[in-house]
Amino acid sequence: MTENEISSIVVDVCYRIHVKLGPGLLESVYEAILYHELVKRGLNIERQKPLPVIWDGIALDIGFRADLIVENKVILEIKSVEQIIEIHGKQVLTYLKITKMKLGLLINFNVPIIKLGIKRVVSNL
Questions:
Q1: How do the domains of the chain map onto residue ranges?
Q2: Cα 14 from Cα 108, distance rounded (Å)
Q3: Which ranges of 63-120 does DSSP label H, i.e. alpha helix?
Q4: Is 16 exposed, middle or buried (0-12, 13-18, 19+ CB in 10 A)?
Q5: Which of 80, 91, 121, 123 could make an SS bond with 27 (beta carbons 3.0 to 4.6 A apart)?
């Protein structure tokens, strides 16, 4: 399955969650439901996976955690904030660089229409 195929499934699931629940819940609620729905679709998901930084040959566990990693190819960063700011996108880009993955989705559920809350972040594509 390609990154774009995974992305399409994730966007569809996010849409269904957002239609049913709407904005205003905690990030952890959206994350748990998204995890559950993606697993139901048969995808391999890692939740709250630690992402060590390799520096000078040493793995430093300094607290980075990816909300969800789908099929070891796409990183999902879940937000429920008034507004996505530049640092949120940079956070996803850093996670992509650390993991050498190519695609991340920054998903803000606190929007009136979910398509306004999904941002693709790419690295090395």
A1: 3-122
A2: 10
A3: 86-99
A4: middle
A5: 80
Q: Are 75 and 99 in contact (CB under 8 A)?
A: yes
Q: What ranges in 1-125 are assigned the alpha helix state H?
A: 3-21, 27-40, 86-99
Q: Which two tokens stand for residue 6?
A: 């995974």
Amino acid at 114: I
Distance CA 94, CA 100 (A): 10
Helices (H) and strands (E) in the chain, counts: 3, 7
User: What's this model's pTM, rounded to 2 decimal places?
Assistant: 0.93
β-bridge partners, 58: 55
Q: Are the CB atoms for 105 and 74 separated by under 8 Å?
A: yes
